[in-house]
Protein: Sugar phosphate isomerase/epimerase
Amino acid sequence: MRLSLCTITFRHHLISLDEIAAFARANGFDGIELWGVHARSLDHRPERNGEWLAALGLGVPMVSDYLPLDADPMELRRRMLALVRLARRWQARKIRTFAGSKASARTEAPERRLIAMRLRELATLAADHGLSLLAETHPNTLADCGASTLRLLEEVDHPAFGINFDTLHVWEGGDDPVTFHRLIRPHVRHYHFKNIRARADLTVFEPANVYAPAGRRDGMTRLFEGAVDYRPFLETLAGDGSVEASLEWFGADCLDVLRHDRQKLTEASAVLLRTAS
Structure:
């Protein structure tokens, strides 16, 4: 498994990409998942790019952003092309977005068709540049539960379209991550790992709270200390060197938690590999 940290972790911190890269390198991370906001903010530093990170032994597997699928088609295309440019600058192969901004159960058929059509068009554009477009399993989107996510893949029906499998959000949507992963694995191009103290705390991950500097962080936990048991899920990935994943941490003590969870993932993976052999 190739593991990255996410720059969104540092959305409220005064820390440079140079410092993040040094930390990632020193703590055994393979890459840095670049938040779209941060990628755009580095436009004034052209010397910071994929080649620079590669020289440090790091890569950018994915640029994560939020494409306005209900926007004017020309504006949507402009936004996508801007992300393509950023992905190519950082040598990323994947662009992540959300499949709309409304729960699947509340989305009417015409709106669903529009979202699928737009995602197909964007996936075609991504493919033209050698990239993939991923929709994240996430609440209040068309990928908020297993059934709707599988349906979305059928509706978009494009080889450059895939899934960013957020294990916690799959569990939040009512599906067993191991069982659902077995069904959808051919379409999964990336994974997000995070955890929560209890189901009652899931509201801490609502965007309005996550992006607020004074938002609540109680309930966010280290990866192996929460309500989702990651060990059975990691068993399904053991030994697969093609897997790319990111630790997604939104709470306090960023560096300590990332360092701790990276080490625990390394230890768990080693145990699983010995058990499998």
Q: What stands out?
A: The longest helix spans residues 254-276.
